[in-house]
Structures are given as structure tokens and as C-alpha cells.
Amino acid sequence: MSVSTPLANPVLRVTPASPAEAAAYFGASLAFHADVSDVAAALTADGDPGFVVVDSRSTESWDQGHIPGALHLPTALIPEQAARLLDKSVPVVTYCWGPGCNGATRAALALAQLGYQVKEMLGGFEYWVREGFEFETWEGRERRDADALTAPADASDCGC
Asked: HSE (CB half, 13 Å, CA atoms) of 80?
């Protein structure tokens, strides 16, 4: 466990975790989260991505824009509708508006409590759009230029 060091700079004031603790933490994080680029790559590759994407926002938010192929299942409706709409053998990736919203976390919790394997898509719809991926609105499909602060300007992926 990390111990405070009184004279260290703000970064090292709390001693970094041991490599074993860090590996356990970061490995667990990847078991719970997926990023926008990885979800987009899986959805656009040939074949079944092996998961379903769930937009947990309101109908008004869904109408403003959503990921093509996503299933609209607002968090409040998960208890009554998940069994009818989702297969427990297929992992679920939830998303909401973006990093400032914990709606995807609440949806992931509700689904996990019902017995679904679930991951949360980091960045949500905001970063989907900011990274330049196609989205749907009630008017049809759209795409915006990628924001150079969230996606590489001249590469197909970030190399992460």
C-alpha cells in the first residue's frame, strides 16, 4: 500500500503503488472499461463484434445523436426491459453523454446486478463525436472532423 512522503513533490507525495498492485489495478480497469476508438474499431470490422452497445440516455438525448447500431435502453428502464432486449451471453458496452456524466456507470451497475457482463465506454457520446466517428440523429447520419486534442490528425489510430 502507498505511504505518504511529507517532503516529496505533489506527484510523489503519495508513493506509487508496487508493480504488482499497479498491474492488478490497471488489469481490473481494462476489464471494466473500453475506449471509444476500440469500440469503433470493433463495430466497423468485418463480422460480429461480440458485444452490444447500449445508449443509456433519455429519448431526447438519443434523438440528438447516438452510435449507429446502438440499442436505446435508458437506465431507468433496464430492470423492466433488459431481459427482453439483451442476451445474457453477449457482453454489453454502455455509454452516456461523456466524461462528466455517470449515466453509463449507473447503467453498467444495473445490468451487472441483473447478471450481464458489462463494460463502460470511456468518453461516452461526446468523445465518439469528438474523435470523428459517424453518428445518427433523427435526420440521418452525420460525422464531424476529429478534434486534434482527442484523436490523431493523420493516423487511423492513436497507437495506444
From this structure: 3
